[in-house]
Amino acid sequence: MTLYYEDDPADNSTRPQLPPLLRAVSVPQEQDLLEKSIVEAPTCEVGTVFYSENTDQMEIAVRLAPEVPTRQAGQMLFAMMIGLGDSIGALAPPEVAVTYQLPGYIMLNRGRAGLVRLVVDPLARSDDVPEWMIVSAMVRLTAREEQHKDWAESAGAEQTTMQEEGGGFISRTRFVESSCRHFLAWVNRWQDDGFHPLYESWMQRLEGSAPIDFAGGEQAEWVGLDEDGGALIKLDGKTTSVMPHELEAVCGVPILP
User: Fold this and answer.
1) Nearest Cα to Cα of residue 96 among 113, 76, 73, 118
2) Contact status, residue 161 vs residue 113, Cβ threshold 8 Å
3) What's the average model confidence in pLDDT over 203-222?
């Protein structure tokens, strides 16, 4: 089955063509896409894909309706990260190496270029089946001159974009389409075969050289993932598991400057 409806690159003015299970809804570039999707989540259709009209980055937020408890539904964080990795692998030049870093960073040639976030119905506890869930993704396509200046002066993690890594020819529209299809493929795989295939694929692209930063300023040693998708981390000699939906509470909200 082909992942694309057409061979020619889609123009940024073209509305994304998505599989029948998904419905594209555009969001003006000046509006916060994740905030918009959270406000709409209780009432909008399952499979709604909010996408930003901003052409400097590819940004989507997918509304899901899990049928499993929050602790398992949080595995969609990994499904989206893998879907983005596969999408970049399909669209970008072969020399672009994609790796992942918790709590949700997408790395291109070891530079941070994107992030994935998970937002769950706040009324749902770990063992509850949530009414709704949002999984969002953002990857920078290009960067403004002032951003490059800020990165050069920063002592933090290296930052990059698709353009800088040789993927500047990829349109926002084509990236939205590809990312959604690859994500949906991994959701279907998860439904059929459980978390293990996602675990194996995600671990193959793990950027394991960096420690895990905690919101309080501590740094924890990365150990791995457990069978439920919990991040195994070691702090002060003790190993603990942090479930996907808990990562932002522990590590803080991932931010791309």
Assistant:
1) 113
2) yes
3) 76
Question: Please, where are the H alpha helices in the chain?
Answer: 33-40, 70-73, 76-91, 145-153, 172-193, 196-204, 247-251
Q: Using the predicted structure, report yes or no on whether residue 62 has a pLDDT greater than 80.
A: yes
What tens digit of pLDDT does each residue of 213-243 get?
Answer: 777 777 777 788 888 899 888 877 888 899 9
- Give 144-191 pLDDT, tens digit per residue: 877 877 776 676 779 999 999 999 999 999 999 999 999 999 999 999
Give the rounded distance of the alpha carbon of 145 from its chain centre.
25
Is the CA virtual torsion 57, 61, 62, 67 positive or negative? positive
Q: What CA–CA distance (Å, rounded) separates 47 from 62? A: 6
Would the pTM of this model clear 0.85, i.e. be above it? yes
- C-alpha distances in angstroms, 21 versus 49, 64, 181, 220? 10, 11, 10, 39
Q: Taking the domains of the chain in order of start, what are their residue ranges?
A: 23-209
Pairing state between β 23-27 and 48-52: parallel
Phi/psi at 28 (nearest 5 deg)?
-55, 145
pLDDT-based confidence at residue 6 (cuts at 50, 70, 90): very low
Return the SS3 of 182: helix
State which amino acid sits at residue 7: D
60-74: buried (b, 16+ CB within 10 Å) or exposed (e) per residue?
bbbbbebeeebbbbb
Distance (Å, rounded) from C-alpha 140 to C-alpha 160? 8
Q: Does the domain made of 23-209 have the CATH classification 3.40.250.10?
A: no
